[in-house]
Each structure stands twice: as C-alpha cells, then as structure tokens.
Design goal:
Blueprint lengths: L4 E4 L1 H5 L8 H12 L3 E5 L8 H6 L2 H4 L2 E4 L4 E4 L4 E5 L7 H11 L2 E5 L5 E3 L5 H10 L3 E3 L3 H4 L7 E4 L2 H14 L5 E6 L2 E5 L5 H12 L6 E5 L5 H6 L2 E4 L5 H6 L2 E2 L8 H8 L5
Parallel strand pairs: 1-2, 1-12, 2-3, 7-8, 12-13, 13-14
Antiparallel strand pairs: 3-4, 4-5, 6-7, 6-9, 9-11, 10-11
Length: about 270
C-alpha cells in the first residue's frame, strides 16, 4: 500500500520524555513532507498548545493539519482555517461539575484563548496540562457562570485509583450522549458524542482524497486506540500502554529512542 499521510499523537509519541522533538525525528518529518506526503498532529491538547511543535514540524510550510481536543477540532495549520469544530452540550457540564466536586477531583475547561478555567482547587495534573500547553490557569468562583461560551471538552484530573471507577460510572450515566474516556491514568476526558481521533480522521481524509488504508497513525495513549484501529497501519510506541499495543498492527521503538524515525524511513522514504 502506498501510504500518503502520517498522523501523530504528541505526548509520548512525537515528543520524548523531555517534551521535545529530537533532531532526528524533525529531520525525518521534514524530509517526508518535502517528498510530498502529508503530516497531521492528533492530540488531546488545545489547539494553541500544539502551535510551537507544529511549527517545529513545519506544518505551516508544508500545509499540514492539527487535530486538537481529541478530535473535536480540525485546523489547517498554515491558514488557521477551522475545518471542523464540535462542542459539548452545555446542559451536561453543570451535572458533571457537581460530581467532580463531590468526588474531590479537579475539573477544567478551556476559554477561547485555550487557557484553562477551573472552579476546583488546582492540582498537580492541571499544572502539568497548563505547563505542557504553555497556557495559564484561571481560578474562578463561579465556574459555570464563567463558561457561557461553546467548549470543545472538559478535563477531569485526579489520582488514577479515583478516576478508574469514576470513568465507568460516567460512561454508564452518559452513554450515547457524551464520549468519556481516560487519555492518561490521571486525566478523564469529557467529549461531545462521536468525537475521538478516528472520527476526526473520517472527516479529514476524504477532503484530502486519501483513504484510511493510505493512512498511518502512531500513538501511545488510551485516546490513540481508535485512530490506530482506524488506520491502514496502526503503530504503537514501545512506551505505549498495554491496551494501545494490543490495538496496533506493529510496535516501534520508544519515544526516547526516536521510534518515529524507522516508521517514516520504511513507509515514506523507502529507507531501511
């Protein structure tokens, strides 16, 4: 199969443990785009949180795409044009916020500038989210009153042993009306229905004249499973969660060992 597009998760896939893209990975990504292939980033991050890395990958130069908020928004990076945007049904947010407060976990969403807004105490995981995305956290007294605008997702943060049963509870309660899953052991994503990375690709690829069989997706986290299963070739990083590896077709080296490089060289640059 002649593959035409490479779709990459960011954290744990495109970036190493230092949250950096290595020189070898950047060189390979630039070369594949220069050869005429398309690159897309698919991430749970807000759109603004992808910009520095997208520029390092030269998505602005070669016309690549950013799929942010776990698939709720698709942007043509070179122009900033929003190709797709899906938002949460507003009526469910107060309900979930009350549950978060009852369980003693954090909950944030994102303002129009992609900064974080929370009405719960700031925890280490919110701080991690803000730091990774180079955004700030706005603590507000009236969380629901402060978010009277469309939001792409809410993020619940907390200890893994607390989020595991909460995930199952919320999935049962909001089955069919919200998409709820963990992207990390300490992050629980609250998404619009039928929104994930695979659904985003179902919208993007036809507009590019590319089939799913011509798509390679690489990832390491729970929220990457759908796109690995959707792609013609799903690639899990060696550092991926066990369930992610089971969903993939092949496993490459870890994100700290330039695991994307052999994938790019083998399938896009015809180099072993």
């Amino acid at each position: 199969m002649n593959h035409k597009i490479l779709v990459l998760d960011i954290d744990g896939t495109l970036t190493n443990s230092k949250k950096e893209i290595t020189a070898s990975t950047k060189t390979a990504l630039h070369a594949m785009q220069a050869a005429g292939y398309t690159l897309a980033i698919a991430t749970g991050r807000p759109t603004a949180g992808t910009e520095p890395l997208a520029k390092e990958c030269k998505l602005d130069v070669y016309g690549g795409y950013v799929i942010s908020y776990n698939g709720a928004r698709i942007v043509r990076f070179s122009t900033g044009e929003i190709l797709y945007n899906n938002t949460l049904p507003q009526r469910f947010i107060p309900q979930i916020y009350e549950i978060a407060k009852e369980r003693g976990v954090g909950m944030v969403t994102y303002d129009p500038d992609d900064n974080l807004i929370t009405g719960t105490p700031t925890d280490q995981y919110m701080e991690l989210e803000a730091r990774i995305n180079r955004r700030v956290i706005h603590q507000v007294d009236d969380f629901i009153g402060a978010i009277q605008f469309p939001v792409n997702k809410c993020l619940i943060s907390g200890e893994p042993e607390v989020l595991a049963p909460l995930t199952e509870e919320l999935q049962k309660r909001y089955y069919g009306v919200l998409n709820i899953y963990r992207s990390e052991p300490f992050f629980l994503e609250i998404m619009p229905p039928l929104v994930d990375k695979a659904h985003a690709l179902e919208r993007l690829l036809p507009s590019l004249g590319i089939s799913r069989e011509e798509c390679i997706c690489c990832g390491d986290g729970y929220n990457d499973i759908t796109m690995l299963q959707y792609a013609g070739l799903g690639v899990a990083m060696a550092n991926a969660q066990t369930e992610v590896k089971e969903a993939a077709d092949i496993i490459t080296l870890s994100n700290d060992d330039d695991g994307l490089v052999p994938v790019i060289c083998t399938y896009f640059l015809d180099k072993e």
